[in-house]
Amino acid sequence: MALFNTDIEAFIYLILIIFGFFVLNRLVNAITKSKKISAKPRIIIKFFFNLISVAIIIYFILVGFPAISLIPETYVAIITSSVSTAIAFASSGIFDNIVAGLTLLAIKPYDVNDIIELKGLIGVVRNLKLTKTTIETFDNVRVEFSNKEILNTELTNYSIKLDKIKSFVEFKREIHYSEDNEFPPLKSEDLNRENDFALKKAFKKAIKRKDNPKIHNFFFRMEFPYERFRLSLKKVEDICQKYEKKFNFKPTYHIDGFGFYIIVRFRILTIASERVFNYQPKFANEIYKVIQDTWKLNQNF
Predict the structure, then answer these.
(1) pLDDT for 277-296, tens place per residue?
(2) Is-above-0.85 flag for pTM?
(3) Class for domain 7-107, per CATH?
(4) Is CATH 2.30.30 what the domain over 115-156 is classified as, yes or no?
(5) What DSSP letter does each residue of 1-58 carry, written as one string?
(6) Which residues contact 178 (CB under 8 A, 6 or more apart)?
(7) What's the distance, CA 120 to chain centroid?
(8) What mean pLDDT is reported for the chain?
(9) Every domain of the chain and the residues it spans
(10) Exposure string (b/e) for 245-266, b if CB count within 10 Å is 16 or more?
(11) What average pLDDT does the segment 249-272 reach?
């Protein structure tokens, strides 16, 4: 027995139900976009809302239209099994990604606006969904990764939560956890003391902020010629001073190795990943110009 007497009546109610879910979906999206709601509950809310919406619409179609009740049960069973098989094949990959997405939500290795390195790409997490994650690299390229792919790939997160960190020792341990995966530890005691001083200053400043319990620790390397190296470092120091306000903290640098060139490692600490995204390319470009100018001076002598 159908819910309505005619198919036209059922169709009108179906349109009204779909429109109602559309309005509710816009309302849910507006509420979940609030900065106070993190990615995990936002994804879960949207997932269950969409699941319930689709289930109600399918149930309404099956029960509401009189025409469907006139179809012989044999044909209904054949159609149902065929559709179920097609959906199973089509959604097998999607289902794997959803399971991977739920796993990522449980372990939560990163969040929106975190700076991560994945498959050799470094960028800011722009979007999290149950099936995929979107990151934007520093050259403004957006790359999508399936959650299944991410779950089976080594990942480095350069963003550190401060809400559960109470001491500088814990903070330093978290900083070096990602750093040691990419760079060897500093061996010089003087450099370690200088490094600790910069970290303590950053920790004391960031821990007082309750509105942003994260600090982003990003670093990169550049190669300098041996000739006029001290002159280059003097110019680099001026650039670091210039970018202190832009990054919240003054960028630091250390000699990281020797070869055909002198390898210098730069560290950027900030309480907003957007600052790294907006200013790191400009900062690196100014340092690169210093290196280029040094090469030109060396060629003239």
Answers:
(1) 889 889 999 999 999 988 88
(2) no
(3) mainly alpha
(4) yes
(5) --SSSSHHHHHHHHHHHHHHHHHHHHHHHHHHTSTTS-HHHHHHHHHHHHHHHHHHHH
(6) 156, 157, 158, 217
(7) 14
(8) 75
(9) 7-107, 115-156, 159-300
(10) ebbbbbbbbbebeeeeebbbbb
(11) 86
